[in-house]
């Protein structure tokens, strides 16, 4: 079975769309996911499954809607996809301060027209680079003060997205290795 990461968008933020991690874990086990773990309250899952990512995304979204009554977008990545993202971060050499780095996971690859248009935006000193289904972000200041938000990329690229800070990305990778 493959080790995978499930990233839920917009739960337990600002007291809205609350889901207890124990309940989320139990729901995941009920739909057949194995060795399920959660990480922090913001909707990070680590689990084993041989099902395709898109199939898992749909199954998780449906199960969450049925159990908790929320439409929660879910993005799934295999462990090796997460590792590739970590290896390919173009900003890792730029700073030793991990708090400046973020990764936006895209549900699908954006169409070329939206991709080219988005690449023309410049919000220096903050920077971004889009590669396949990831957006690597470097924020000179605080992420919540940047224009390079999850909503910005969803609007411009017209695809679903969810963002994690770099420490969380690294921790999810670490947890994938521990079965």
From TrEMBL:
Name of the protein in question: DUF1697 domain-containing protein
């Amino acid at each position: 079975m493959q080790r995978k990461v499930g990233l839920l968008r917009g739960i337990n933020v600002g007291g809205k769309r609350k889901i207890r991690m124990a309940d989320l874990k139990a729901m995941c086990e009920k739909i057949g996911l194995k060795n399920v773990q959660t990480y922090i309250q913001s909707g990070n899952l680590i689990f084993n499954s041989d099902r395709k990512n898109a199939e898992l995304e749909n199954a998780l979204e449906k199960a969450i809607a049925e159990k908790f009554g929320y439409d929660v977008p879910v993005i799934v990545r295999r462990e090796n996809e997460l590792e590739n993202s970590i290896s390919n971060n173009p900003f890792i050499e730029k700073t030793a301060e991990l708090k400046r780095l973020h990764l936006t996971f895209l549900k699908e690859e954006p169409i070329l027209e939206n991709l080219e248009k988005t690449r023309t935006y410049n919000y220096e000193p903050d920077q971004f680079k889009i590669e396949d289904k990831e957006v690597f972000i470097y924020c000179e200041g605080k992420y919540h003060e940047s224009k390079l938000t999850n909503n910005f990329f969803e609007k411009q690229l017209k695809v679903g997205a969810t963002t994690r800070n770099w420490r969380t990305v690294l921790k999810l990778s670490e947890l994938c290795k521990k079965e």
